[in-house]
User: Fold these one by one.
Assistant:
Number 1:
Amino acid sequence: MKVNYQLKKTVDLKEIKEAIKPYGGRCAKIAEGSLEFQIKEENQTSAYEFLKDKGYID
C-alpha cells in the first residue's frame, strides 16, 4: 500500500529510507513536503508510530 505523510522538518531521504527498511518500506520519495513510500499494510501502523516518535512526521 502507498502511504503519504506530511513531514515536520527537512530530512535526509537516505536517512528515512534506512529508518523504514526494517518495516518493509520501499520506494521512498519526498514530494512537496510530504514523505511517500510503499509498505505492507500490516507494517503501516508500526512504521507510522516509529516515524512520529522520531519527529519526522506530524
Number 2:
Amino acid sequence: MSNDAPASTAPSGVETNGVNPVPDAERRGTPRGLFAIWFAWNISILGISYGIYVFGLGLSVWQAIIAGTLGYLVSSALVGILAVGGPRTGLPTLVQTRMAFGVRGNSVPAFFAYLSNMGWKVTIITLASTTGANLFSTLWPGVFGNGTGGSAWYTIALWFVVVLAVTMTVSVMGHAFIMKIEVWISWVTGLMTLAFLGFIVPQIRWDHLGDAASGSPITFLGGIIMAMTLVGIGFLNYGGDFARYLPSSTSARGVIGWTTAGLSVPVVLLLVVGVLLVGGDPKLGSAAANDPIGALTALLPLWFFIPFSIVVVVSLVSAAITGIYSSGLALMAVGVPLRRAVTTAINALIIAAGAFYLLFVSTSFLATFQSFLSLIAVMMGTLGGIQLIDFIRQRRRGWDPALARPRGLGGRNGRWTALLSLAIGTVVGLGLVTSADPNFAHVTGFLLTEGARTGVIGASNIGVVVALLLGGGSYAFLTFVLKADPAPDASALRSGADGVRVVA
C-alpha cells in the first residue's frame, strides 16, 4: 500500500488503511476509547500467573505486590507516551520509527518487533486452544480425552483451528470493528473475572502469607524488571497503532493516562491475587509453570468452570485479535509490499508453526515463555528507548509524517545514529539476560558470571532495562551532544519531481 494513496474503509467494512498516515477526515474518538482495548487485551487469567512468576524470584508477598505494581505502572506509562505519536502523525508505531531509523534501516527493528508480536500471539492462541480442549475433555472425557486426564491431541488441534480462524477473520476487518467488539469483550471478561475472584479469594491461605522470607534489594529490583518485561515492554512496539485514529489535536495527557490505566488496572488486580494465592500455597507455583490456566481453573466448581472457560477463551482471542492486527502492520513496516489482509493471512501460517513447538516440543510453558520474553524484549526495550528520545526531535520538526518517507521525499533511507544505538543496547542487553530454554540459551548471558547467571540478576532479566537505558542514552548522546543528526532529505520534492509513489 502506498504511503500517499487515499485511504478509506471499504463498503464491506474491511479497513483499507495500512502504513499510510490516517487522513484527518477519518480521525474520530476520544482517548477514553483506548481504555477498553487495552483493558480487554490484559484482563486475562494469565495475569494471575504473572503474579506467581514475580513472587517466584524469592520475594515476600508484600514485596512481590509492590514490585510488580511498580513495574506495571512504569512500563505501561512508557507505552502510553509512545502512543502519543499515533494521533500526532496518524502512523502506526513501527512506521513512525522510520523517522529515527530511516525507511530501510527501520526494517531491522521492525522485523524483530514483528517476531515479538507473533511470539506473543503464538503463546496466547496456544493457551486459548488448550483451555478450550480442557473444557471438552472435562465434559466428555471418553471422546475428547487422552485417557490419562488430559486432552487428546486432536481435541487441541480442533480448538486451535477454530481459535485461529476466528482471530484471523476479526483481525482482517480492521480498526473500527475491533474497537467496537473490544468494548463488549472488556465488559464480559471483566465481570466474569470478578466472579472468578469470588471463588478464588476464599481459597487464599491467609495464615501462611508470612512464611516467605523477604528478598534482598536487588531481588526487589529484579521483581520490578520482571514485571516490566511481562507487560509493558512487550507493548512498546504498537502503542500508537490504535491511537492513530484519534484527532491530531488529542490531549497527550489523555492518551497517556487512558493507555496506562487500561494496561495496568487489570494486571495489577490479577497480580495481587496471584501473589496471595502462591504465597499461601507454593505448590501452585509449580503447577502454573507447566499449565498456568489449567492450574487455576482446577480450583473452580464444575458449574462455574464451564462458562468461565469459555470466557477465558474469549479473552485470550481478544488479545490475539488486537495483536495480530498490529502484526500485520508490523510486517508492512518491514517493507513487505502486501495489503494488510494478506499479511494477516501469512501470520496464520507462522502462528501454526510456533504453536506446534509450544504444544508438542517445549517441555515447560514457563521456560519457553520467559525465554522468549527476555530475548525479544531486549531489542524492543532498546527500540523503545530510542523512539522515546527521538520524540524530542520529531516534536521539534512538527510531527511531520514525511519524516517517515525515503530519502528525497522528506526522510532518510537510514540513520546510522539510531542503528548504532540499537546495536549497542541489544548486544549488551543480551549479554545480561538468561534463558531457561536450552534452545535460546546459546545467545544470552555472555556478560554474566556463573553466579550472576544462576542468581536473581539472571532470573530478573535486568538486561532488558539496561538495553532500554543504554539504547536511549547512546542515541541522545549522538543526537543532542555530538550533534550527529542526519537531516531529513526532501531534495526530490524541492527539485520539482512529481508523480512519485512510495511503496511501503
Number 3:
Amino acid sequence: MRSILLTSDSDIINGLRLAGVMGVLCKDKKELQKNFDKYKKDPNIGIIILTKSSFEEIKDEVIEVKLNQKTPLVVTIPEVGGKMEDDFILKYVKESVGIKAI
C-alpha cells in the first residue's frame, strides 16, 4: 500500500517526495474534495496525509472516513513553520491504538 499527500503547499509536497510519498497539489477546496474522494476509494492507498489547513477544509468528510472505513488511515501534519498541539503524536497513538503511551 502507498501513501499520498493532499495539500496546497508545494514545499511540503517536495519535502515528502524525498521520503517517497507522492503528493497532489490541491489549489482550492473543490479540488481537495475531489482528490480526497478519489483516493479514499483507491485500494492501493493505505495512508492519506493532509496538512492541518487541508484537514480543516474537509473536516466532516475526513471524520466520516475515520469512523466508517478501516482503510485508508487519514493523518494530519502541520504546515511548514506551523505547530500542532504539543502532544499530537501521543494523541494519534492513543486514537489509533486505543492505549495511552507514556
